[in-house]
């Protein structure tokens, strides 16, 4: 197989990400979002929101990271943040998926893509921390647009949202979380008057 | 409205691109592709295929161009390359859409995004020519994966494919067209034995 044939085979395999469904819906609630269109949307988030990163980032690396961050879901599926998972088992499945899927590329690209995915997953570099912030915040916006979206279904509380999502968004893009906080607080105080 | 609120409103508006359907299907033929997931897919094409540009390009600009290239379709819809359109009328609708949609952003970003979209549409810079090559070639791969895909429906001939698509792909990425040529020729010679 030539180099370009391997690249085309990888890109055709990548098409399957459009059939991986996420918990979150589109902003109009019409259907569940897939991981391909989600990847586009958060790459666009990065392009627009770069100035709100709280540390210096390389926005071009962030965008590339976001374009490939969910490819492992072709094999591993999406694991909603508010669901229950065996984290170690999920990690093993995703790692095997990364080896298989990135392994379809020519060796040099396979290594580069896998390393970029590892960096995203580790969430330690400034680029990865900002990328993770965007990955976490986009479903929140979709939920706010759709009357709470998946929050009631997963019985999410305001505290859980802060712990599971808010803390991670604040690590890389606190200004975005601040901008959403009033809308989030309003939704949860309307949804759960008994908790006041 | 604060700067960040305007950016969030733009990003929520952008979500509608996931509901714009294209003529082409997914690579498994299961359903029509939408313009959001298409935008992700060709940004990934750019990331993988950058080395096949026939002139020096800035791949980071190409990726950004591809992320925003179809946003006007939120208002204007998708216009299949093999369909019949009033080109001038379509251009006017798309221009109004660009003003409205990019105009939701803060002024500096609105200008930058609109300029990047103009550059893509003009298809004169090396970055835009390469971006257009990828935009044209991805549906060809999907059609080849699905037994001709939309070609029979639009009665596309081998000559039309070469004129409408091949020439444009060859302008920016001749190596990719070369790699597909044998598969394309095989499909058309099987589909139209009477034309031989």
Secondary-structure-based class of chain A equals: mainly alpha
Query: What is the name of the CATH superfamily of chain A?
Result: Hypothetical protein af1432
The counted number of beta strands of chain A is 2
First and last CA, distance of chain A = 64 Å
User: Rg of chain A, please?
Assistant: 17 Å
In CATH, the architecture of chain A is Orthogonal Bundle
Helix content of chain A: 55-70%
Largest interface, counted by CB within 8 Å of the partner chain's CB: A-B, 46 and 46 residues
Name of the level-1 CATH class of chain A: Mainly Alpha
Detail the poorly predicted runs of chain A.
none
Please provide the ordered H/E string of secondary-structure elements of chain A: HEEHHHHHHHH
Sheet-strand content of chain A, in percent, reads: under 5%
Domain count of chain A: the total is 1
Per-chain topology:
2 copies of one chain form a homodimer.
Chain A: H1 3-14, E1 21-25, E2 32-34, H2 35-49, H3 59-68, H4 73-76, H5 87-102, H6 107-122, H7 126-145, H8 158-172, H9 174-191
Antiparallel strand pairs in A: 1-2
